[in-house]
Amino acid sequence: MTDTAGGVGHSPIRPDARSKTDGTFDYASDLRLPGMLWGHTLRSPHPSAAVRSIDTTAALAMPGVAAVLTAADVPGANAYGLITADQPVLAADRVRYQGEPVALIAADTLDLARLAAEAVAVDYETLEPVTDPEAAVAAGEYFRYQPVRLGDPDAQAAAVVIAREYAVGMQDQAPLGPEAGLAEPAPDGGIRLHVATQWLHSDLEQLAPCLDLPPERIHLEMSGIGGAFGAREDLSVQAHMAMLALHCGRPVKMMYDRAESFLGHVHRHPARMRYEHGADEHGRLVYVKARIVLDGGAYASTTDAVVGNAASLAVGPYEVEHVSVDAWGARTNNPPCGAMRGFGGVQTCFAYESQMDALADALGLHPLELRRRNAVAQGSKLITGQTVDARDPRRDRPGGAPFSPLADLLDRLDALPAPAPAPTARPGGSGDTTRGEGVRRGTGYGVGLKNVCYSEGFDDHSTASVELRLEDGERVARVHTAAAEVGQGHWTLQAQIVRTELDVDRVELAPNDTRIGSAGSSSASRQSYMTGGAVRAAAVAVRALAAGRDLADGPVEATRVFRHRATKPMDPVTGQGDSHVQLALCVHRATVDVDVELGLVKVVELACVQDVGKAMNPLALEGQIHGGTAQGLGLALMEALLTDGGRVQNASFTDYLIPTALDMPPMRIELVENADPDAPYGLRGAGEPPTLSSTPAIVAAVRDATGLPLTRVPIRPEHLTTGRLP
Amino acid sequence: MRVTMRVDGDEVAADIDRPGESLLSTLRDRLGRTGTKNACEQGECGSCTVLLDGAPVCACLVATAQCQGREVRTVASVPTVLRDAFVACGAVQCGFCTPGLLVSAADLLGREPDPGEEAIREAIAGNLCRCTGYEKVVEAVRAAAEATADGVPRVPARSHLHHNQWINVVTIPQGGTGNGEDTP
Amino acid sequence: MTPPAGFDFHRPADLAEALRLLAADPEAVPIAGGTDLMVALNYRRARPRALLDLTGVADLREWTDEGAAVRIGAGVTYARVAAELGGVLPGLAAAARTVGSPQIRNRATLAGNLATASPAGDGHPPLLATGATVTAASAAGERLMPIGDFFTGPKRSALRPGELITAVTVPKAAGPQQFLKVGTRNAMVIAVCSFALALDTGRRVLGTGIGSAGPVPLRAGEAEAVDLPWEAPDRFGEGLAVEFGRLVAAAARPIDDVRATADYRRHALAVCAARALRRAWAEAHPEGSVRCG
Ligand SMILES: Cc1cc2nc3c(=O)[nH]c(=O)nc-3n(C[C@H](O)[C@H](O)[C@H](O)COP(=O)(O)OP(=O)(O)OC[C@H]3O[C@@H](n4cnc5c(N)ncnc54)[C@H](O)[C@@H]3O)c2cc1C
Ligand code: FES
Ligand code: FES
């Protein structure tokens, strides 16, 4: 490996930077073709109803309306899903959540398509929705139940016991780019789709049976993606615009507005969790019991895998010998939930970190000290029985104890200088609610443990093809993958790897599409590891092929499929099994100023130490930490989709608030390179862990300032003031 | 109804079909000028920020017909030095917020050539970004403000090169195998 | 809703023309900054056949100093109120600074805020606290409305069909003014509740305005009547501030909604009102040994 300029470890300019700063980068919503129609989705206003009839006559009669399609027009199977095909492309006789697609309209303009949708008459018989996930579980309505059993928690005596219930609200990914795409009928009767998706090949697999087309007649091309965070894992516009385009024989574009976007993609599972931690008088964990109910909403999406993560990571990076975890993913008539950055790790992290703080408080220990005493180390076992592999023979703990990557991060976090005592801005911002009145400062810590790549025995792989050629005497490389550049900088990373492996300067990136094998999803913090691994393998192969050959005779090319080492499913009864490939750790310290009388919070500073294995691109890593931390801040302090009887109450940026520049504080970051010998370049997936640990750190800081237990996120001002006298 | 206006220096005409058609949809859907982004049409995200007669506004909240004879400037008119600063500082991830942020930042620098951090945050508070947490955006605006006379943004020294106090990369030396060539 | 067959977009250059056009085309919906109206149009909550653009109306564009008061033309934006009127109308200017974002303030007008008549409109509490007057005009002539009579219900006002707001006349500050707005984000947020206070040290009068805590913006009459120790300012004590807060909270008629609970709104109003009064009193009596905090 050479230290090539713009190679691994550097922070070269993004290949998409120019076009993203001059307005020429084409996002899915920017696409258009001559003669194109606009598609629009009519959605159910009811969370649960029988569909008695749909009358499309009036809409079809409107001039400029080209088509109105319903379930009867779905060419193939009327069901899709990432793991289980249980979600109708268009509801046939039953709607199970508010916003479920019922009919499609194609018209000359988007405005007209929307007007026509209002002219479609759907006769619903409303039914009582199931909205309480606990009741659903009790009635056996759940997508997955996953227990974890270790030792005998019921037989243990503990010096301190903390038992509390926690709740996490329904967070939305809120990527700024709305769902959008363009479908073009192909001359062979097939279809070409330009989409912004996290996983082209999964879209393809799901689409083929619905469209009743052989996969080779469906061609997917990635268009520019305006953020994803899990919101683009499931299908949105894909099948709908394909149906309209095939039906009309014309290109069809679809684009959601923000209100539709809130209804048109899955969210982070809201959770209710009951935790009981027992510890000895030194603060060592004796046992943990947890009961976790995640609300999966109406359809399966990725709830299965989210439940697996919630269960296997339920205790966090702490050693404990006696554990009992029960985790469910309930089926209700609430909005479907699925992937969002942190994927099942976020909810439990808030609970277990809150528990660790409560234990520290009860024992009079510093929160960092309590965590150090329980931190996993080289050779310790997770609650699934999986062994922690964090070899570092030269850095054992005092007394010959094995190296603990967590204790190391905590020491580093502790060593970061504290922010200045004088605040730059007050809680309440320009609302001028305080000029210091009622303001108290608090500090808190959070630790997050996230699995990287797909777990539980999934055949996780990625494909890359690399070509090396001579052009005007210069060696030029070209990379082709199907991996989604969602903003994280994956294109940059691919080019860096090729530069490093082939010692070239110029690297071209072929468009991401389905002409090459699957790259898997840009999710689970896996793309650097997986597609990075595939690109590296292909580049290494090209290097070998090129050795001793004259490139003037023609280009050299290699395609490689990369797999990480196999994982195992969790045992359905005990939860035991080596279910994860790689684990990543991140720790946060939050400093907040709280106006304790009004319950308003200003986060003053966030400090973060993250083990990235290898800082492949430090600039991009910082960006991931900033952005992931901001989303954690949002969950801690403001973000929740609120439902009432299954209906979303705040599907707009007016009432679903995400942090602004005046909410996010400056950050202090330390990247630690504790290489994973099994991973390409030693890297550790980095996109998700900061989203886990920032939430509990901020909540802990607010607790520190207010003295309140705070068991729900997002914290609302009234949680901080109830019971307080003015 | 025909509306004529200047967009990024060009005289343009658009035929709108309803009185309330927004400047944003006219720019994007009628004039094909898609550099200005649509992320909410509620005035909340700032992705559609343009300068209307020099003042930053949300194009989604301006009726096109209100722009007759007026001057609109989009991301296409933003000074290169500011763009370069965004690129060099890592202020661009998915980039969907970027055109709007650039217009807001350009307006700030036009009014206030040497803004402090708080002034920058105030100026971009109407521009939501879901990817960056804003830190590098703030940095980029500073870098542009401190640009050299020949238009090169002064990008803060990054620690992976210089170990400044803000960002540290610490490499833990590995015993044994390490991260060599022979990994998968 | 069906698409309009033909449509109109009126661009009057002066007020007389605007009123004539409105009389001739009563369906025409006025549009100023568009920051309320365009959201409704974008989301198809309204689909007017005609709009009447007020941004070109020269007579509405300026504010004028009328001696004891400032007359703010209907077309004056919040950005200008914040930048230009902070000295004479500190309460309203403070409210203006909290409206939306820079982009919103560059377009949003005080008159548009009033015409929308949302209980959460940030301009309303300072206008109530200072006893402003709304001027409305129609082809039939002009009339003045005390601000207290203007709001008739959630998003309803005393404005009649065919009328435009032409100006809002706000008495100049005769003492300290305060505006506090509670929101769950540090910027760009609709008020959970807000409170404005105007202390007239010459006339020894206290004015109040409550936002986002009732079907309409409210005054707190009983709170305005608290017995302030004008003769012995340093006798202003914590008890008085708290009592004032309690009376303000009691005057509110809040509801539970997605932004906050009614209880929280009452609580927050009590806190904000007490703070506002302490600050204002301390500012009015800088020499005295007023305990503040
Ligand atoms: C993102 C965002 C954030 C916001 N934040 C805030 C906030 O923090 N605080 C707040 O108070 N408001 C806020 N608003 C609401 C809005 O900006 C204000 O109500 C603003 O003052 C409206 O003024 P305008 O000129 O834009 O009105 P327009 O949208 O042009 O008009 C609003 C209504 O008033 C009528 N109208 C306008 N002018 C007149 C007139 N002269 N005579 C008669 N009728 C008239 C119109 O017909 C229309 O019905 C926000 C809006 C957005 C989109
Ligand atoms: S699209 Fe205009 S502000 Fe969001
Ligand atoms: S870079 Fe993605 S929203 Fe800002």
TrEMBL record, chain B:
Gene Ontology MF terms: 2 iron, 2 sulfur cluster binding; metal ion binding; oxidoreductase activity
One Pfam entry name: Fer2
Keywords: 2Fe-2S, Iron, Iron-sulfur, Metal-binding, Oxidoreductase
Residue ranges of every copy of the 2Fe-2S ferredoxin-type domain listed in the record: 1-78
InterPro entries: 2Fe-2S-bd (IPR002888), 2Fe-2S-bd_dom_sf (IPR036884), 2Fe-2S_ferredoxin-like_sf (IPR036010), 2Fe-2S_ferredoxin-type (IPR001041), 2Fe2S_fd_BS (IPR006058), Beta-grasp_dom_sf (IPR012675), Diverse_Oxidoreductases (IPR051452)
Entry protein name: 2Fe-2S iron-sulfur cluster binding domain-containing protein
Keyword Cell inner membrane part of the UniProt annotation: no
Originating species: Glycomyces paridis
Keyword Signal set for record: no
Lineage: Bacteria, Bacillati, Actinomycetota, Actinomycetes, Glycomycetales
Automatic annotation (TrEMBL), chain C:
UniProt lineage: Bacteria, Bacillati, Actinomycetota, Actinomycetes, Glycomycetales
PROSITE patterns in the cross-refs: FAD_PCMH (PS51387)
Organism expressing this protein natively: Glycomyces paridis
Domain FAD-binding PCMH-type stretches: 2-175
Entry keywords, A to Z: FAD, Flavoprotein, Oxidoreductase
Annotated GO MF terms: FAD binding; oxidoreductase activity
Protein name per its UniProtKB record: Xanthine dehydrogenase family protein subunit M
InterPro entries: CO_DH_flav_C, CO_DH_flav_C_dom_sf, Diverse_Substr_Oxidored, FAD-bd_PCMH, FAD-bd_PCMH-like_sf, FAD-bd_PCMH_sub1, FAD-bd_PCMH_sub2, Mopterin_DH_FAD-bd
